[in-house]
Design a protein that fits this description.
Layout lengths: L3 E5 L3 H11 L4 E5 L2 H10 L3 E7 L4 H12 L8 E5 L3 H7 L7 E4 L4 H12 L11
Parallel strand pairs: 1-2, 1-3, 3-4, 4-5
Amino acid sequence: MRRSILSINGNKPFNYILKTVLSDKYNVFLAADPVSGLRMIKEQLSLSLILIDTDLFEQDAIDFILHVKSSLIHDKPIIVLTSSDLNLLLSKLSRIKLDEIFIKPFNPVLLLQHIDKMLMPVSLSFPIRP
């Protein structure tokens, strides 16, 4: 079963790029803002990961992250995409542990590789004995 990712980004072309890069391996749901993202979370509880861009809706994005990390789905990884002041963002989110931050501009293929590693199932390996 394919895993699902929610991308919250007010920049439609950037959201399209993310969907194009990620959709070969994942079901990608797009939201234009954090409020729409919350609605989608309520509809799609089987999300594996959330991508959120903080640039267009900085305070709403911060409130979204704080809400998700204090809710029933607090264990879902969130990757923050930003081009704003990293120290200011980190100070606003100091109450929680962020899963990952990607500073824009970045290579979407590297993001995909990072997501693959984050969502890779934990496999147990046992030595094979003759």
